[in-house]
Amino acid sequence: MKKYLDKLPLQLKRIIRQAQAASVSLGMPAYLVGGSVRDLILGVKHFDLDMTVEGDGLFFARQMAKRLSAGLVIHERFKTATLMLPGDLKLDIATTRRESYPQPAALPQVSPGGLPDDLARRDFTINTLAVNINPGQDHQIIDLFGGQKDLAAGRIRILHALSFQDDPTRILRALRFSCRFGFRIETATLGLLKKAVKQGCLACVNPHRLRDELILLLKENEPFKPLRELSRLGALSCLHPKLKVSRGTQTLFRLAKQQLDWFAKNFPRRRALDRWLVYFALLLAPLSRAQIKRVIDRLSLRKGEVKRLLGYYRQRSKIIYVLSRKEVTADKIFSLVEPLSYEAVILLKTTVKNKYLQKHLLEFFAVYNGMRLCVGGHDLGCLGVLPGPRYQKILAKVLKAKLNGQVNGRRAELVLIKKLAAEK
After folding, report:
1. Which residues contact residue 58 at a Cβ distance below 8 angstroms, ignoring those fewer than 6 apart?
2. How far apart are the first and last CA of the chain?
3. Is the pLDDT of residue 386 over 70?
4. d(CA 256, CA 283)
5. How does strand 155-156 pair with strand 184-185?
6. Which end of the chain is more exposed for a tag (fewer CB within 10 A), N or C?
7. Between the CA atoms of 354, 360, 361 and 362, what dihedral angle is there, to the nearest 10 degrees?
8. Same domain, yes or no, for 273 and 401?
9. Which of 117, 132, 153 is the last residue of a domain?
10. pLDDT value, residue 73
11. Are residues 5 and 81 in the same domain?
């Protein structure tokens, strides 16, 4: 394992050195575990670190946060913590534990346990590998369930027959890992997965857990592939009975990726897009507005996500109708598109082929988006115009003139507000 650890970037090596020091000072054995070990062996270039600790993992995490000057989020119920580090890097630290499920699809009940218990609670054998990182150890891989053999064979295998009943979100994870790594799902595992889908196990999952797992799937580089497999299995019916993917869905995903990559390349200083939200909206495209609302409610999406999605669906028809014309004033483009999220605009660019709409949306991104006045309330106050309806109307007229190229710069804006303020 040493040859893999030696290849780590300097930042990850520093984190491991600090973990080794904390392990010694606190007397708590610490291990790299799960996806970190898997990705190390597979040669994945960018990944977060997962550690598990025999002892008080939360106390260990607090000490690591101090050592690394990192942000810290504690999950008391599950005895886990997440450290937020520069460069969008995360370090997950957990207390070694055992888990039991009081009923299918329920949240697990957590109790203290050793490393073997901690590895036995995991989803697939390829995620059960661990490495003791303490000084003086030979850093050999701890493999209690044949994970290395399955990793070498490119095989997804569960640890026990009730795995998918205990946690049905493993159905999504199995397909996600299978498509990401090009692995096949082992025959018996696939049979149990299909059985769990047929039994409707996913319909029993807590909405937040199902939402989070679906988002992870949609964040994959090629999210259509696992979605297609879910659709073939009939697993998408847990969201809505009429929800399926098709060749049309595949085409939309391909076009969306082109638009998302275009935005990232051409507007690197703008807010980074939630790519998964764009794919999610395209997944729901075959459904009616009422059906889409049911899916959104089913998943308990966050308020900001709901606002962006519903804003797109509400305004879509009107925007298409107006912007599909050749001649549209800049202020009209601005007033229609500025209230939308970037994701909504990308969805319009993805799904509407009209050349005039494409031109107007490009102009919005390149010229009008975020346009602001040089003058403001202080200037109006100096002219005796107090905040109120007239105040807002004057500023709106100046912005309209600026968008349409009729004024340019602070001096021209001041001349116009003086003229408008003098009007009765």
Report:
1. 74, 76, 79, 81, 95
2. 81
3. no
4. 11
5. parallel
6. C
7. 110
8. no
9. 153
10. 94
11. yes
